[in-house]
Amino acid sequence: MKTHGGALLSSIHIDRGSNRNISVQLYMGLKDLLLTQGIKPGERLPASRTLAAEIGVSRTTVVDAIDRLISEGLLEARVGSGTYVSDTLSKRPPKPARSPAGSAVAEPRLSHAAYHADRFFTPRDWLPHRAQPFITALPALDRFPMAHWSRISSRHWRGGREEVMGYGHPFGHQGLREAIATHLNAVRGIRSDPDQILIVGGAQQAFFLIASLLLNPGEHVWFENPGAVGARNAFVAAGADLVPVAVDAEGLSVEDGMQRAPHFRLAFVTPSHQQPLGHVMSLSRRLALLQAAEEADALIVEDDYDGEFYFGDKPPPPLKSIDTQERVIYVGTFSKTLFPSLRLGFVLVPRGLVDVFARVSAYWLSGVPTANQAIVADFMNEGLFATHIRAMRQVYRARHGALVTAFSALAGRIDIAPTASGFHAIGVLGPGLDEHEIAAQAAKRGVILAPLSRYCLEPIGQRAVALGFGAVGEDRIRQGVEALAELPALQEAEPVLRAMAG
Ligand SMILES: Cc1ncc(COP(=O)(O)O)c(C=O)c1O
After folding, report:
1. By the 8 A CB rule, do 306 and 392 touch?
2. Given 1.20.140.10, 1.10.10.10, 3.30.70.790, 1.20.1080.10, which CATH number is that of 9-91?
3. CATH topology (fold) of 392-492
4. pLDDT at 104
5. Residue 275: CB within 6 Å of ligand 1?
6. DSSP assignment of 476-494
7. Ligand 1 atom 13: the closest Cα is on which residue?
8. pLDDT tens, position by position, 46-89
9. What is the pLDDT of residue 498?
10. Most buried of 36, 313, 325, 488, CB within 10 angstroms?
């Protein structure tokens, strides 16, 4: 039997500056050599003492690595004769390793839905997380009552171990379901039973669950155009045929939907604060949509993501509050009312669907972390949630006021469209201004603008950007506008005076 000379073995590189233990590095190096047949099956390894000297490590280190490879079956110890490369490797030799650059990697085989969905999923390696001027989707993290949260959180972790650490109920923490039902009744005018409330990992998980439960590939989904990107992605991923339905000052145009796809299966709407344009859906549109759904035997998904933050005296009424036929699946999130990293949302499921949602959530999803749910339940029951929302209404009203005032310096180039709730507004661009160009120029100065086209399934002939005003204080809003005023694209533009409706 041939003995390996050790030239190859000495090619194993040990990095003494690495955090990785030397024995692990040696094990990985030897394993690579074995799998790529740098040492052939049946060959004998040099004695551990020789190896240790050649590689420059202690003998114990070599013995550790070899023992591990013996236990994995890649090496064999033969009594009185030494250590050999397993013959099994010659029977089914592993294929050469794929190049890290991916050149040798075959196209992954995707489902049809994922293959077709890919064009919607533009590269993005972050979600909004840094409080920068005009970032959308991020609430006022600077105003979150962290001391109360920490107090309730540490109290929770002192509870009974099984309750705190075991699997939670798959439909969600009962206390939270009850607190949500009470809140919906008191604040959003929605009558519900806690048994209809299903806790999920954020609204986005709700959209995926709804899409996978209720849609077959190719079925028509009315979708606001422009509309919410996350929900759109969930329906696209399910293989649904998304029908872009026009939006005007009264919300989704039911007439346009009927012309495009009268036999729709589902409609997705944001009636309290159209995402992203900010309109509140009129009562006549709400009634027309409910009737259209009734006629098509369709369901409606209502995403009430920020309806709690209205600037006037009265909240915008949810569609669900007038749904007498149980056609509306109402989705709520704590990402805006509390904070997004909670990953906590809920679905108010129509009675006829409760059993199937419950079964599926138990078998497909297995729940979300109990701690977050229990802490939020206490937060609600102690009145802190309602207090926080009331305080945030004032904060967003003030930040919105600062936004409108600061942007008046850019009148005719970026005009703020009126909005009465939430924490983002639309900035309509003057003629000749390109959304992508000014967004790119602004990003270089640390100011985030989201082009309206990002929200569109088909072009709508309006150039605008979405402007978040919730995440940063009034000073930073003013500084953001000052930075925008310096953009070459805006300096070159001729201001055009327009009357903004509203
Ligand atoms: C329209 C809309 N709905 C819901 C959400 C919340 O999603 P999640 O609860 O998954 O954070 C967002 C987040 O930005 C949103 O823009």
Report:
1. no
2. 1.10.10.10
3. Aspartate Aminotransferase, domain 1 (3.90.1150)
4. 55
5. yes
6. HHHHHHHHHHT-HHHHHSP
7. 137
8. 888 988 888 888 999 999 999 999 999 999 999 888 999 998 88
9. 65
10. 36
Mean pLDDT of all residues belonging to the chain: 91
CATH class of 157-382: alpha beta
Per-residue tokens: 257: 């939907």
Residue to probe by mutation, ligand 1, list 141, 204, 252, 346, most atoms within 8 Å of CB: 204
CB of 455 closer than 6 angstroms to any ligand 1 atom: no
Can you tell me the distance from the alpha carbon of 413 to that of 435, in angstroms, rounded to the nearest whole number?
12
Q: How far is the CA of 12 from the centre of ligand 1 (A)?
A: 50
Q: How far is the CA of 347 from the centre of ligand 1 (A)?
A: 13
Ligand 1 centre to CA of 343 (Å) is 10
**How large is the C-alpha radius of gyration of the chain?**
30
- The tens digit of pLDDT for each residue in 152-211 reads 999 999 999 999 999 998 899 999 999 999 999 999 999 999 999 999 999 999 999 999
Whose CA is closest to atom 1 on ligand 1?
228
Buried (b) or exposed (e) across 76-111, using 16+ Cβ within 10 A?
beeeeeebbbbeebeeeeeeeeeeeeeeeeeeeeee
At 309-329, the pLDDT tens digits run 998 888 888 999 999 999 999
* Dihedral Cα 483, 485, 489, 491, nearest 10 deg: -140
Q: Is the CB of 334 under 6 A from ligand 1?
A: no
Residue of 209, 333, 448 best suited for mutating to test ligand 1, as the one with most atoms within 8 Å of CB: 333
Q: What is the pTM of this model?
A: 0.88
Q: Where are the domains of the chain?
A: 9-91, 157-382, 392-492
